[in-house]
Amino acid sequence: MLQPLRILFRPKWMVSRSSASYVSRMRHLNKIKEEDEACRAALQSGNIFLYHKLAPLLRWTDSGIYQLPALQTKDVEEILEKLGGDKEMVKESILINCTEQNEAQFSFDVGAIDQAAVEEQCRGTFVDLRKAFFLLRGSEAPLVARGQALLRWHQTNGFCSSTGQPTQRNQSGSQRVCHSSGITYYPKMSPVVIVLVSDGKRCLLGRQSTFPRGMYSALAGFCDIGETMEEALRREIAEEVGLEVESIQYSGSQHWPFPQSSFMVACHATVNPDKTHVSVDKEELEDARWFSLEEVQEALTIKVPPRNNKGEPTVFWVPPSYAIANRLIQEWANQQHLKS
Ligand SMILES: NC(=O)c1ccc[n+]([C@@H]2O[C@H](COP(=O)([O-])OP(=O)(O)OC[C@H]3O[C@@H](n4cnc5c(N)ncnc54)[C@H](O)[C@@H]3O)[C@@H](O)[C@H]2O)c1
Ligand SMILES: [Mg+2]
Q1: What is the per-residue pLDDT for 134?
Q2: What keywords does the record list, in alphabetical order (predicted)?
């Protein structure tokens, strides 16, 4: 019998902020998302994160870490004019979020403007998002991913799929409308389940042939239309490794920008310890196997895997801490410790 969902942890945001300030912030954010005039006003005093061909601008700081520089709107206008662009382009910025001080945060892609010239003006570097995820700390990584996901969605949804006519965005960028058909389009994420299967003593990890060498992760799969998350999870595990899941526990979720926006729902699951034979679907996975607590602990300590002279990792390692797979593996290892 599948167990009902159970929240295993209380995220910080559930406990650390006073509800009044959180409520007023969310209402403010909703207003600027929905009302064009309010959004234009918020842009005047807001923060802008720059991208070039969807690569975010990062800045190396005196304290020895990379940061996501937040530019003021007037600074971006000045840079655009200086580099031969039109300062009105800044109005194409997309609303991402707002700070605890209620300052709106936007993402803006500099498009055809010379990359090196913008980097020089901003004292920063445009970095591929996968690398930026590694370099940024705390809440900056999900923020930069969200900004990129929204920019990408606008860049690829310029036309109505029903009429072929151009779609028009609202000021915040929370939607696009085809005025010919009346259809409103909203940014999309594909739901994905990611699951760490355990037989009580070991956990099951798999790898696709496209993963970097030696890296194994929790198993994942896209939900089919009409499926519940539990159904998708049971189906994916049956399809990919031929096992039947007995219980499921919800752990957390994450927006995952690669290669397109997915909404990752992360769970722990168990199988009957007498029914652990793995039969890998080789179309989906290169390998999947059971790992002991000792092997997993060792892998969790590896931040950057050692590499051979071809630059390939030489050991078993797991996804980095920004991936929710890492959190599932860490949680499993902690639970095994508590049991022993
Ligand atoms: N954040 C993490 O920790 C983490 C870890 C592992 C995987 N992931 C992500 O999970 C996602 C799904 O994992 P998977 O590749 O094993 O899925 P999967 O097992 O469902 O296999 C992928 C295949 O599903 C099909 N598919 C069905 N719906 C799709 C859709 N909406 N978009 C793309 N393909 C679709 C395609 O044929 C594709 O080749 C991947 O995007 C991967 O990047 C994230
Ligand atoms: Mg899969």
Answers
A1: 82
A2: Hydrolase, Magnesium, Metal-binding, NAD
Which atom of ligand 1 sits closest to the CA of residue 259?
41
Handedness of CA 60, 61, 67, 72 (dihedral sign): negative
On whether the CB atoms of residues 182 and 136 are closer than 8 A, the answer is no
Q: Which ligand is nearest to the CA of 195?
A: 1
User: What are 224-267's pLDDT values in tens digits?
Assistant: 999 999 999 999 999 999 999 999 999 999 999 998 899 999 99
In angstroms, the CA 247 to CA 89 distance is 52
105's tokens: 């945060």
Strands 203-207 and 245-256, by their bridges, are unpaired
ipTM: 0.95
Q: How far is the CA of 219 from the centre of ligand 1 (A)?
A: 10
Got the DSSP string for 174-225? S-EE-TTT--EE----EEEEEEEEE-SS-EEEEE-TTSPTTB-B-EEEEPPT
Neighbours of 154 (CB within 10 A): 17
Closest residue by Cα to residue 205 from 238, 241, 233, 239: 241
* Long-range contacts at 332-338 (CB < 8 A, ≥ 24 apart): 332/196, 332/198, 332/203, 332/268, 332/296, 333/293, 333/296, 333/297, 333/300, 336/201, 336/293, 337/293
Q: What's the whole-model pTM score?
A: 0.90
Residue nearest to atom 10 of ligand 1 (CA): 220
Of 34-43, 61-70, 164-173, 198-207, the least confident: 61-70
The CA distances from residue 326 to 178, 254, 317, in Å, are 41, 12, 10
Among the bound ligands, name the one nearest to the CA of residue 262. Answer: 1
**Distance between CA 32 and CA 47 in Å, rounded?**
14
